[in-house]
Amino acid sequence: MPLTDSATVMIAAEPTMPLCFLRGQRIHEAGAMGFPWRVSRGVVRFDTTEIDGELSFAGLAMEGDLVGAEVLMFGRFAHRATALTSCQLEPWPGRMGQDRDSLLQALARAEQRAADVVALRSGQAMARVCRLIELLLPRAATTPLKAELPPLRDMAEITALTVETVSRMLSGLRRQGALEPDRERRGNGSKSCRVSRELLVAA
Amino acid sequence: MPLTDSATVMIAAEPTMPLCFLRGQRIHEAGAMGFPWRVSRGVVRFDTTEIDGELSFAGLAMEGDLVGAEVLMFGRFAHRATALTSCQLEPWPGRMGQDRDSLLQALARAEQRAADVVALRSGQAMARVCRLIELLLPRAATTPLKAELPPLRDMAEITALTVETVSRMLSGLRRQGALEPDRERRGNGSKSCRVSRELLVAA
DNA sequence: CGAGCGATTGAACCAGGTCAAACGGGGTGG
DNA sequence: CCACCCCGTTTGACCTGGTTCAATCGCTCG
Question: Which of the residues A45, A49, A103, A116 would you substitute to probe the B interface, choosing the one with the greatest number of B C-beta atoms within 10 Å?
Answer without folding.
Answer: A103
